[in-house]
């Protein structure tokens, strides 16, 4: 009984001593860690997982953690199990942490091909789609032109996005880009887009609502060119504000008047107004072949119609208003006719005086 008790105590003491010591694999003096594995060459030093299944590997050539892969001699990465594989490693010469993933699924003990997803450099800059994020704290590259950034409350919900289709940086509102414009969530969509080639900033919108992931048809609305000129309905403004279409000033409850470019609900005041007509100015009244209405006919017309010939009546003006340019032309026509009447009357008066 005493021998058994002594043996038990010896075993316990031996176990406790072993547990208190560091363990070294490939190293005789493991003083830096409880488990210190040392190896040479670009091969995996430690592999955790069942044989033929996904596992975690450790490599110290470039400090590396492998997921579902390991490095054999010559640093050739091989799958440990079926599926995708990835590595997280630190480039000590550059101070850069990188994360790569396999381009396809694979099977155990076959070579792995990786593509870089993201990197963090020694300045704390993060790159997604690039391993050299030297221009910003977060730098995103998407060579195919698809959406680089989305902010939304959840999947298939409205939000805003950033993308660069056809080399034109764009910000979408409930619109994203993936081989074409698509709705992020249900509703309308809009987009600001800048062209570095033309220096033009443009706004587009969808004229109809759409469902999440449905194709979005973008309609041009306005642009601002490199000279600061704004065009509404035109991509080539020629004035500080260039509008192609109708304009309404006043309450939003009124509709543009049919056939007119500008509608104003209220009064207008200005120091100068220039009207440029495309029709003939009334100098034709002084032409030799102009037929001046005899005064007796003019008198009959006035008695019958209560207004001058070629001048709209009070009822017409009250109902439809009048064109300023056209009315000035008509009034000048009457003034010039009146001048001819005065000249004619003067001649008649002089003839009467001469006959006495």
What does this protein structure show overall?
The model has no long low-confidence stretch (mean pLDDT 86). Strands 3-4-5-8-9-10-11-12 form an 8-stranded mixed β-sheet, with no helix packed on it. The protein is 19% helix and 28% strand. A hairpin with a 7-residue loop joins strand 3 (46-48) and strand 4. It folds into 3 domains: 15-141, no CATH class; 145-269, no CATH class; 272-355, no CATH class. The protein is built from 4 helices and 24 strands.
Short characterization:
With 356 residues, this protein is α+β, with helices and mostly antiparallel strands. The chain folds into three domains: 15-141, no CATH class; 145-269, no CATH class; 272-355, no CATH class.
Poorly predicted regions are: none
How far apart are the termini?
A: 175 Å
Please estimate the helix content: 10-25%
- Average pLDDT confidence is 86
* Subunit arrangement of the protein: single chain
Tally of distinct domains: 3
Summed up, the helix count is 4
| Strand runs, count | 24
Report the sheet with the most strands, covering strand number, pairing sense and barrel closure.
Answer: 8 strands, mixed
Helix- and strand-based class? alpha+beta
Overall, the morphology is rod-shaped
Strand content: 25-35%
Strand order of the largest sheet: 3-4-5-8-9-10-11-12
Order of helices and strands: HEEEEEEEEEEEEEEEEEEEEEEEEHHH
């Amino acid at each position: 009984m005493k021998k058994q008790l002594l043996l038990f105590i010896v075993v316990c003491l031996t176990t406790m001593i072993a547990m208190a010591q560091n363990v070294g694999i490939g190293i005789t003096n493991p003083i830096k860690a409880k488990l210190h594995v040392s190896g040479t060459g670009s091969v995996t030093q430690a592999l955790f997982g069942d044989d033929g299944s996904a596992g975690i590997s450790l490599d110290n050539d470039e400090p590396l953690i492998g997921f579902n892969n390991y490095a054999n001699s010559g640093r050739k990465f091989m799958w440990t199990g079926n599926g995708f594989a990835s590595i997280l490693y630190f480039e000590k010469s550059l101070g850069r942490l990188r994360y790569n993933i396999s381009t396809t699924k694979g099977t155990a003990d076959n070579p792995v091909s990786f593509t870089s997803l993201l990197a963090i450099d020694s300045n704390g800059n993060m790159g997604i789609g690039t391993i050299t994020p030297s221009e910003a704290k977060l730098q995103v590259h998407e060579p195919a032109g698809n959406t680089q950034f989305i902010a939304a409350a959840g999947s298939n919900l409205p939000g805003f996005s950033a993308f660069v289709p056809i080399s034109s940086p764009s910000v979408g509102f409930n619109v994203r880009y993936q081989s074409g414009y698509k709705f992020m969530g249900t509703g309308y969509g809009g987009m600001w887009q800048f062209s570095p080639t033309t220096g033009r900033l443009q706004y587009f919108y969808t004229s109809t609502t759409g469902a999440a992931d449905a194709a979005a048809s973008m309609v041009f609305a306005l642009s601002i060119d490199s000279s600061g000129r704004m065009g509404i309905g035109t991509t080539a403004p020629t004035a500080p504000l260039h509008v192609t279409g109708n304009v309404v000033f006043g309450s939003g409850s009124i509709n543009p008047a049919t056939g007119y470019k500008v509608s104003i609900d209220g009064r207008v005041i200005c120091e100068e107004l220039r009207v440029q007509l495309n029709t003939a100015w009334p100098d034709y009244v002084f032409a030799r072949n102009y037929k001046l209405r005899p005064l007796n006919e003019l008198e009959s017309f006035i008695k019958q119609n209560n207004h001058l010939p070629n001048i709209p009546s009070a009822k017409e003006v009250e109902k439809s208003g009048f064109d300023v340019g056209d009315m000035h032309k008509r009034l000048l026509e009457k003034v010039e006719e009146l001048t001819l009447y005065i000249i004619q009357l003067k001649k008649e008066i002089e003839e009467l005086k001469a006959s006495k």
